Every structure is written in C-alpha cells, then in structure tokens.
C-alpha cells in the first residue's frame, strides 16, 4: 500500500519533528515505544491518504506552519482516531497539519500536555454502537455517533476512521465504516469480538463470520491473504518473519486476523493488509478503502448484513455502553 522508500524518507522527517515527545511523556508507559510507534503509524497514514485522495484539493498551507508534506492529499472531512487513548497519534497528526479528532471514553493526563490545539481535538464520548440501524426510507444508516459526521452517500469516503490498538472497537471498525460510508485503517492488538472476548478455540457462539483457522479453498482472497499472513497463521506473532510455518497450528493472533478479515469482507470492503515498520509485534494494519460491490443490489446486501449483524448483537444484550470517565479500558462493559 505504501512505498518503502517513500515511507523511510517521510519517517525520518517526522521523527526529527516529533522525537522530542519522548522527553515530555506524561504516561507511565515506555515513551520510546509509544512515540516511535505512533510516528510510524502517522507516516503510513499520511502516505496512504496521499495516494487514496489524489485529485482532491489539499488545504492551503498555513503561513505560520509549513510542512514538506503540505501538498499531500488527505481525507476531505478529516480523520477520527477511535479509542485514541493517550491521544499521541491524534497529536502527531494534528501538529503535522492534519484535521481530525481523537475520541475516547475518558481523558488522559497526557491530553493537556499536548497544548491547546490538540487538546481541543480530543473528545470524551461513549459510543452506543448498537443504536446503528439501516433506514430503508432514507437509504442510509441512522444512530451513528455524531463524531462520525454525515453518512450521506454523496459524501462517501470523506471521513477516515483510525483504530490504533483500539481493543473492543477493533472489530467494529468495518461495521462503523460501512454504516458511516467511511474509509478506515485498523491495527489489531488484543482479541475482541463484537460483544465479548474472541475465543476461537472454545467454539463460543459469536456474532459475525466463521472463525475457522484455515482459509477457505473456494475463496481466492482468503488464500491470498493467508499467504501474506503466513507468519502469524503459522504461530509466530511477528509479521516480518521470513520463514513460512504453514504446518503449525495457527496462533490465536492468526485466527483473530482471519476472522477480522472475513468480517471486513462481509462489510463490503476489500481486504488490504500491510506489515507496518513499527516497534511492535502486533504490527499488521488492515485497510478498508476499496469496496467489493459492483451494483446497487450488491451494496444493498451488505447494508442488510450489517443491519442484521448489529441487530443480533442488540438482541444478545451483552454489549453495554459505559458512561464516560469509567475505568480505563474500552467503550463497553462485557458480561457473560
């Protein structure tokens, strides 16, 4: 998705600009890991946006803040960093000249340390995703969080959703993106299903697609994806491993990756993956940009799938929206 040489060139510029964040880190976690990891993710996003939104006019560079990438194309209605946590990725993007918001269940002490420009873009909000419904009379989904903006089909793809180790929100990224007519990138970490923990080997009933460990021989895209993900499917969590280990039982991480890919496909997105050059073993990014449908009737089937999927979760009653300022974690309380 992103050229390696272009990534390296831009990463060095971004690192020079933002590496000082290590010295002002406010959280108890390792600053070097978080800062350089999020610089890498921001670099990847900037290059992906530039290639995705080419042809759209980028905003005019501000006189007081010019960047070598000011001419880059970008999401017309900005980004939404869902489950932004410490707000670092949002801060790096905003201070690099990009428009967007970071959304989380509670504020972190680091938010105010980033300065007023970033602080004004960090929002505390609980998300009731079970309120999403398809309204056939309107021809669109309703009940979306306000922070996602308009989901008018004429404005499709103008908002870009980011799920950076977003925990419980990770499987919801393609669901939200389809309902909001948005694009997204998700970097999975912990194993969450749509309303519970992901436990593929326990054969628990979970809303969503099949969670089998093996790609379907009849699905060429699954076979191609399995070839890309051979390291994690073979039991190693390092996406940069050069040894194919297809004879081993897939790891829980590998099973989860396949399940997320199937869910993304069911939500009408082609599955594009890339191993990010970041200091993390959970470094695979899923991009949802290209759509699988060719006709209105095919899109209608995806609308129906997403509507019924959210309805199933609603009926199970396990997903519970937490109030803002709750304990640290995600956006929902899980029972059962």
The secondary-structure element order is HHEHEHHEEEEHEHHHEEHEE
Summed over residues and divided by their number, the pLDDT gives a mean of 85
Residue windows where pLDDT falls under 50 for at least 5 positions: 235-247, 326-336
The amount of helix comes to: 25-40%
Shape: globular
Taking the sheet with the most strands, its summary is: 7 strands, mixed
Radius of gyration computed on alpha carbons:
19 Å
Strand order of the largest sheet: 3-2-1-6-7-9-8
Secondary-structure-based class equals alpha/beta
Q: How far do the termini sit from each other?
A: 39 Å
Measured by DSSP, the beta-strand proportion falls in 5-15%
Total strand segments: 11
Number of helices: 10
Catalytic activity: uridine(44) in tRNA(Ser) + S-adenosyl-L-methionine = 2'-O-methyluridine(44) in tRNA(Ser) + S-adenosyl-L-homocysteine + H(+)
GO molecular function: tRNA(Ser) (uridine(44)-2'-O-)-methyltransferase activity
Function: Adenosyl-L-methionine (AdoMet)-dependent tRNA (uracil-O(2)-)-methyltransferase.
Subcellular location: Cytoplasm
